[in-house]
């Protein structure tokens, strides 16, 4: 039985890998200039520091989001992350660090209940009223987010942030295999975000003159 269960689990994870990657085909951009113009970019949160070091995933996501705004590919940024206790607040850290990169703080909207990728994706639509968004993260994460968006009826594309140094690769890839399996299960089971709440607007910069 253990062998059968292991084979079934492996087959499911292989299916999840294929299904998630397929959902992202043709929807991921490596160049900011190539990203179709949207009102809003959703920037996925992560911890600022990891084992005492700056987290390269975090820094790269903010650099990519600031570039999208600077090149006028988006008019506002929605930063979504964990805010479960007073001493840890990903959205506020992201807003402050994006402002330090030159993005006006008034055009950065915080989603304080982006506890998982699923929550961030569905809340962008169900709480913040978005129908078309650009996701900002690393490629492995974008593919999973785009799968979740497709399942939720959210029209999304992804802009790739720089990958972390190679020494992080094995750890990230191992975690992602399981995360993709969980994402497929979430969709099959119809799971939603942990928190919803009242509708909120996303602050947008004025439309540039033509």
The CATH first-level class comes to Alpha Beta
**How many strands appear in the DSSP assignment?**
8
Number of helices: 6
- Shape category: globular
Strands of the largest sheet, in order across it? 1-8-7-2-5-6
CATH H-level superfamily: HUPs
Structural class: alpha/beta
Number of domain units: 1
Tell me what the CATH architecture is. Answer: 3-Layer(aba) Sandwich
Briefly note the CATH topology name.
Answer: Rossmann fold
- In percent, how much strand structure appears in the residues? 15-25%
Mean pLDDT: 91
Low-confidence stretches: none
Descriptive key words:
210 residues; alpha/beta; Rossmann fold; 6-stranded parallel β-sheet; two-stranded antiparallel sheet
Question: Can you offer a commentary on this structure?
Answer:
The protein has helices spanning 2-23, 56-70, 90-100, 117-126, 139-152, 169-189; strands spanning 28-29, 40-44, 49-50, 53-54, 76-80, 108-111, 132-137, 155-160. The protein is an alpha/beta fold and 210 residues long. The chain has a single domain (11-189), classed as Rossmann fold (3-Layer(aba) Sandwich). The strands form two sheets. The chain has a six-stranded parallel sheet with strand order 1-8-7-2-5-6, with helices on both faces. The longest helix is centred in the first third of the chain and has 22 residues, at 2-23. It starts with a helix and ends in a 21-residue tail after the last helix.
């Amino acid at each position: 039985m253990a062998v059968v269960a292991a084979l079934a689990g492996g087959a499911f994870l292989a299916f999840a890998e294929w299904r998630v990657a397929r959902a992202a085909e043709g929807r991921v951009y490596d160049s900011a200039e190539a990203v179709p113009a949207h009102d809003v970019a959703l920037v996925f949160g992560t911890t600022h520091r990891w084992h005492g070091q700056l987290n390269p995933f975090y820094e790269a996501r903010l650099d990519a989001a600031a570039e999208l705004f600077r090149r006028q590919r988006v008019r506002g940024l929605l930063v979504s992350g964990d805010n479960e206790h007073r001493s840890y607040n990903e959205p506020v850290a992201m807003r402050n660090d994006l402002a330090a990169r030159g993005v006006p703080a008034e055009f950065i909207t915080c989603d304080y209940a982006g506890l998982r990728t699923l929550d961030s994706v569905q809340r962008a639509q169900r709480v913040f009223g978005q129908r078309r968004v650009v996701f900002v993260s690393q490629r492995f994460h974008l593919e999973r987010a785009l799968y979740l968006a497709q399942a939720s009826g959210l029209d999304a594309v992804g802009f790739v942030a720089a990958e972390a140094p190679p020494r992080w690769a094995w750890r990230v890839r191992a975690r992602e295999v399981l995360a993709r399996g969980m994402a497929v299960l979430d969709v099959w089971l119809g799971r939603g975000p942990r928190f919803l709440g009242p509708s909120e607007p996303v602050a947008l910069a004025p439309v540039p003159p033509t």
